[in-house]
Amino acid sequence: MSSDQDHLRETDSEKRFEFKKEQNAAFAAEKGELDEETIRLISEDKDEPEWMLERRLRALRQFHAMPMPTDWPSQPDLSEVDVEEIVPYIRPDVDMRGSVDDWTELPEEIQDTFDKLGIPEAEKNALSGVGAQYESEVVYQNMQERWEEKGVIFCNMDKAVQDHPELVKEHFMTSCVPPSDNKFAALHGAIWSGGSFVYVPEGVTVEMPIQAYFRMNSEGMGQFEHTLIIAEEGSEVHYIEGCSAPQYSKFNLHSGGVEVFVGEDAHVQYSTVQNWSKNTYNLNTKRAICESEGTMEWISGSMGSKATMLYPSTILKGRGATDNHITIAFAGEGQDIDTGAKVYHNAPRTKSTIESKSISKDGGRTNYRGLIHISDGAENSSTSVECDALMFDNESTSDTMPYMEIEESKVDVAHEATVGKIGDEDVFYLQSRGLDDDDAKQMIVAGFIEPITEELPIEYAVELNRLIELEMEGSLG
Amino acid sequence: MARLELDDLHAEVAEGGEKILDGVDLEVRSGEIHALMGPNGSGKSTTAKVIAGHPAYEVTGGAVRIHLDEDEFDGIEIPDEMRTWDLLDLEPNERAALGVFLGFQYPAEIEGVTMVNFLRTALNAKLDEREELFEDDEGEAEEADDEDAGYETSPMEGDIDEGEVGVAEFQEIMSEKMEQLDMDAEFAQRYLNAGFSGGEKKQNEVLQAAILEPSIAVLDEIDSGLDIDRLQDVSTGINALRDEQGAGILQITHYQRILDYVEPDHVHIMLDGQIAKSGDADLARKLEDEGYDWVREETYETA
Could you give the dihedral angle defined by the CA atoms of residues A11, A12, A18 and A22, in that order, rounded to the nearest 10 degrees? Predict the structure, then answer.
């Protein structure tokens, strides 16, 4: 055990990489690894204050006390996710570096994808650990200075713990996503690392989207990154997360946490396009609490992974609060993308709209799993849910599970779901105009997801389209 | 220009095997207007779909050929041995690249795809495919490097290659054609056929033909569901296809009405999967007055 810990402290990247390679199997054989000692080590490594360590330890106890979620109807198969084997995977992550040290160590299919995507050189280099992302870093720095003048904080989550303890202490996994929420939230609370912290003071509008794009790799937003966004009264911010490029890692579990606090009259948009490597179990908890007249918008594209369970949720706490969800899921061969949205209407005149699109192909499965809860007393609230599924073939499946818990009678509830196969007539029509079979299907899919792409900044929209295009070519393997 | 030739064409429904075409012979040249008439179920629409390569039909005999008369196709030289193509060997998009256009009776509605993006993509795809079809085998090696254009390339805009019709250039072509057809400028930004009225869809089919400039356009009941004003617009468009672009038109219709505006050179009557009778414009007028019974009697008496 102690020699393992020495390895953990190893900072030389090459050695660390070797360490991962040779030790993975050995660790996997050991059981019951995720113990207090490990957590203390993580916390010590990050030089964290005592209160954060305490939170981690409490979350760890909750993690051990909670059963694996296995009782949801038609939920993705998580039997491969052995919690005892999670430990070896987190250890290298403690080091706060990118998950891949050497570009050439990436599997060929991923390298190929980067090339086809036209990922900028800078990003390739960042990924490869060369760290030649300075150009964008400069831009980022300039922008940061402008924000800082207005009192905006945007930094690494680990840094936030050090520099803004009061804000973090108050909001970090307390009222929004407590570790007791679910087993993976508890796991996240125990071993979280990296992520973003955003604070926007009262009345401030951050005009440009805040992007955690390059930071993803350089600052080691690992597999358990935490994002905390606090938007005070009357403020406005658009946060974009995610590398839309496939994130390769040797780990097989991603369990992120996102907490958003939308103040009165504030407006937060959280957009993400994520594409995980196909051995990843992507089990996240994302939630927003929205005060009166505030607006929360979730825009997300979920691709890749072996199984995803992700249901961004919003608690409409104050009168007149609004929530909008736009989600898209793509499942190819062997993939189970179980995603949707949850909205709790806990005040009068609250409003939510959910627009969910899914595409399945080559036997992939997509599922919309949603929950709308309208509390007694949330009168004059309204919700509208629209789910559209598009299937490529008869092997692929798509389900819709919209749960509605309505405790108030003076409300307006609408749900609409459509499931369709890519129509032969549609494909033929486009072919007769000169498009080949693949291009025709691609155009139909691009049109299908257009409501999402039009909400995203252009480079994300382009990449989302490109990713889907590549998935459809089957060139991602 | 070109000559489309149907030679003893037999076809059935791919699933179920119901026989529909029972030996169709027909020849349409660029610059000619042919009307194909006949009662419901006689095989008119099937003929159109088989020409374009619809997967729902299986060809069980005969041939569909296109002969290219000119030496060049958009600057691509046509080698002598590549003047005749057997369409049945080709994919629908390859047929389109060789100048065959099908105007649909019920065109598909594609959400999220704007008219302008779609048509520019289609035009460029056609030009690309055309080059590929006439390319010597030696040229094939060049293609491989073409793949990656990275951020320069948006799938929403289509690939940006040399020799492509660019956005600005295309918009000019499109608005000119739309004006000719008396279409609103806002059409360009609408989603392909989505929420279009019946008349707008038909106008759109003619617009697409005008932009893609086929050698042979097969128009399947382009006149159905049109009010008189729209019928005139559509007819103007069809006449322009022939007069300005020299296209050959195979016009499938039930009614004389459109033939008042689009005067056919030849009229064919289809019965039970065959061309039962051919004639000039007078034949269509006779049908209008007397129906199909006399054709049926004549056909089966002589048979």
Answer: -30
